[in-house]
Specification:
By secondary structure, the chain is mainly α. The chain contains eight helices and no strands. It has one domain: Alpha Horseshoe (Serine Threonine Protein Phosphatase 5, Tetratricopeptide repeat). The mean pLDDT is about 85.
């Protein structure tokens, strides 16, 4: 006979700060660098410097955000930040070591595959956080255009990709500020368009959030 469960079960979680503002702000800086290099704001000779900045500035900050997203049990945030975290290191090292201004089919294939995975995340994001879904959708298009150019498509695709990156800079700044103010004020200040369980996490009471706690990773027996 299986042992009977206790009537009272306590689950202790640590109160970690949200990782989203740090992830958004560092993501935005990275996109601005990529956009400036692709649309002509920066000369091609600055490619190595951009690579250094992506690897030394953006990558560590997003990695920190990934760790705390996992610790805060935000699987979606951790997955998205994790994909982008190492992508900044990958692109940074590629720009740092590769010939300036020269396309690479290997990078192109990587960008196309990466964009496909980000597109899958965008679909999932629409269920709870449409603002993040929009950013991921733009990032998917940007990466796909950049990957096509690396494979030999016209230069206009790289330029379009660069301008989408600039748009992502502003969108990321808005998102980072919105989630930061939401955390500070404990209420929505700038619209982030939460819905479903994501909205309940802010607007619902504690009982609502604990309804399915037994099914969450870290509580259930297996992943």
């Amino acid at each position: 006979m299986p042992a009977e469960l206790p009537r009272e079960l306590r689950i202790v979680v640590r109160p970690y700060a949200t990782a989203l503002p740090l992830g958004f702000f560092s993501f935005g800086v990275g996109m601005l660098l990529l956009g400036g290099l692709g649309n002509g704001w920066l000369p091609v000779s600055d490619q190595h410097t951009v690579g250094l900045l992506l690897a030394a500035f953006v990558f560590p900050l997003e990695t920190i955000a990934v760790v705390f997203a996992f610790l805060a049990r935000d699987a979606f945030g951790a997955a998205g930040l994790g994909l982008f975290s190492t992508s900044w290191l990958t692109l940074g090292l590629a720009d740092l070591t590769g010939p300036a201004g020269e396309p690479s089919r290997a990078i192109g294939l990587y960008l196309l595959g990466f964009s496909f995975m980000v597109g899958c995340l965008a679909i999932a994001a629409w269920l709870g956080k449409p603002l993040i879904g929009l950013l991921l959708l733009l990032a998917t298009v940007r990466g796909a255009l950049g990957g096509a150019w690396e494979f030999g498509a016209p230069h206009t695709l790289e330029t379009a990709s660069a301008w989408i990156a600039v748009a992502l800079f502003f969108a990321a700044a808005y998102g980072g500020l919105a989630f930061l103010l939401e955390d500070v004020k404990k209420e929505t200040v700038l619209p982030v368009f939460r819905r479903g369980s994501s909205r309940d996490s802010i607007e619902g009471d504690l009982a609502t959030q604990l309804e399915r706690i037994a099914d969450e990773a870290g509580v259930r027996q297996t992943l």
